[in-house]
């Protein structure tokens, strides 16, 4: 299947589709990766031989670090994806909602950094299991002068409680897997060397259930309707994205090393330092 | 009071009713146990001398392992209970809702295994405190080819968040008390040797409160209305229960040792092994 | 600014207002403290130079132990504050809601005891970080013969789940910071010697965000509307406050040492002992 999806490695084993995200250098959520994931989800939607989808990363350090920041200079890059977005959802929200409403059971196996749109992907999945030693989750958008625009405000507000959602959304700091577990963001934090075996066993067990069981369970615990909130989220995001601060932070961030391994490993500091400098300038 | 309730040992001390479930060999939730619990709840409903009800088990290994699986061969056994179920609720949902809407404070002291309908009972109670060493909670229904039909999908969906609810409902694995606490399923996990003293003190303190306080607190934090969800849950459950897989798993499970101590202690493996064999058969 | 607020010490540094509650001997939430906090919140509401408000206590043992119990003998003391309460809210609910709806980010740094109306204040703030060693949270109202009347039933019912909310509301016992974190009541429990640095860094980082980001995030995750529940809470509280038990417990509690340091450090025992005696009296 892999030739179909330039950024994914897909394999199917006894009802479990293992989808490994492989979009070097750091798995940025760009148009190609979004296109590939959506294409895959759509293709298997009606395929009863696929019962569980496990997403993981080919990169030991990064799951998805955030949405492609070059969007700032190519605002039309996502236009094709936007054509397929359901009424009332922007292209990033539509991406999360496609994951959240997939009929199969979706599981994220998280062993690296997931930030911004990558963290939204994680949260949209049905379940997430994360490495205690290596996983990090963050909504880093505020450090780019914006708020999340792909579902995080609604997903986290609903799942974490407003107190913790605001801390994550406004603090911008990464949390480790044990904190994410305590906050209810993910299902569980597991020792790195147990993560594969735990997720594999769970996925296989679920895939082996009698016909109809997965659908019945997902129907009995439907995804909460968040439509009103998405409009509010989009307005907040779009309003900020149009301001000079966001432009300077995103373009400046790219110049300073975002999208490179070194830059991404210290992205929070990189953006905070940049903002300190920008604020000090006459027209900052 | 005990003669009234063949499966319960009831004692009252300073406003606290201690209800010990004693339905050998393993405390299966059968017609008699359901009848006794409902009869007890109804009897004390208007009794202002009973303020707190603490449920525990006479069996050190089992609280309630699940609903009586012989239901598969005696579908009319629950007919009498069904006559008393409120409009829109099946007999198992009506059981949970009777617990959840009891005017007294209901507390489960959990020191053994509670699965399926037994776990639904636990979740329906106002509070649960569980032994770190001995308590286990599971929704094991999927291993019988069905989804829960007595409230678990709604209770867990509402209390745990969809990510953890789906893990519990579809994974079918038991979780220990510390995991159940982290997931918000129960109030607290406590060391086994502190459980009795903790619950006794709390129950006694609540029972000693001035008149009207318990009712005021419960009125100010009403049980969430889940009626729409119960219909959805029932349809999912009933649709699967009518399929051959459920019949084979439940009847086959009984033949392999369910309802016996040995079988119940390894029920998950017993059912998974059975399903592997059934799937391997020509008409499996 | 301090002369304006007899019970507060206010300082502003780079967008962070540090508000230290200083109302000796034990920081009781009396008319003056409520008035000062409301006056401060109103004053800075439109002040864009204030972005984050951090509340802490000048008293190492007490944040706010509860509402002024002498209210029992001065029922008109709060009349002036009541005039400013929004339609449908009593004066204590209006206080919590003023905190909860403040446009700035509100953070409580908790290193002592917060009970009753003090705990409601904590819960109404956007975020709370608490000392593992020193913080304690409790809704102690039931030990005074009443249920909370300033938002706790609604805030906790919504945030903690009904099982844990009822435990806190009816048990009346203090919980430590780690339990409060596990219950989702607060954001995090931190070692006492890390608390200041953690909160200061977070507050400063949030205050340094580009214009509009805080408002956008708070708009995208709005405070849940709890208006129906406030009416229910008020009725429960007011009904109990009018009964002889509450009067005896509150007045008797004051006679036994409430509002003094020694009495407040053992308030739960003091009130339980008093109630045991009152119940033993002919007209108790």
TrEMBL record, chains A, B, C:
Phylogenetic lineage: Bacteria, Bacillati, Actinomycetota, Actinomycetes, Kitasatosporales
Q: Which Pfam families match?
A: ECH_1
According to the record, the signal peptide region is none
Record InterPro entries: ClpP/crotonase-like_dom_sf (IPR029045), Enoyl-CoA_hydra/iso (IPR001753)
Q: Which CDD domains match?
A: crotonase-like
Protein's name in the database: Enoyl-CoA hydratase/isomerase family protein
SUPFAM superfamilies, sorted: ClpP/crotonase
């Amino acid at each position: 299947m892999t030739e179909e999806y330039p950024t994914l490695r897909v394999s199917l084993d006894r009802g479990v589709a293992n989808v490994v995200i492989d979009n070097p250098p750091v798995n940025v959520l760009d148009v190609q990766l979004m296109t590939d994931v959506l294409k895959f989800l759509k293709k298997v939607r009606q395929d009863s031989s696929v019962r569980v989808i496990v997403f993981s990363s080919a990169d030991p350090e990064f799951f998805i670090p955030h949405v492609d920041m070059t969007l700032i200079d190519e605002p039309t890059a996502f236009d094709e994806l936007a054509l397929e977005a359901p009424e009332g959802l922007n292209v990033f929200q539509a991406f999360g909602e496609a994951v959240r409403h997939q009929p199969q059971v979706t599981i994220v196996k998280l062993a690296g950094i997931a930030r911004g749109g990558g963290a939204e992907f994680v949260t949209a999945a049905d379940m997430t299991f994360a490495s205690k030693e290596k996983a990090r989750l963050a909504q880093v958008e505020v450090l780019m002068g914006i708020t999340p625009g792909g579902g995080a405000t609604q997903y986290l507000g609903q799942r974490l409680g407003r107190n913790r959602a605001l801390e994550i959304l406004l603090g911008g700091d990464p949390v480790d897997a044990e904190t994410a577990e305590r906050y209810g963001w993910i299902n569980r934090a597991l020792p790195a060397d147990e993560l594969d075996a735990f997720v594999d066993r769970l996925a296989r067990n679920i895939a082996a259930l009698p016909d109809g069981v997965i659908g019945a369970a997902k129907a009995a615990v439907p995804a909460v309707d968040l439509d009103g909130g998405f409009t509010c989220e989009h307005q907040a995001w779009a309003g900020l994205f149009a301001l000079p601060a966001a432009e300077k932070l995103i373009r400046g961030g790219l110049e300073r090393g975002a999208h490179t391994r070194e830059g991404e490993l210290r992205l929070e500091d990189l953006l905070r330092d940049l903002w300190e400098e920008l604020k000090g300038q006459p027209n900052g």
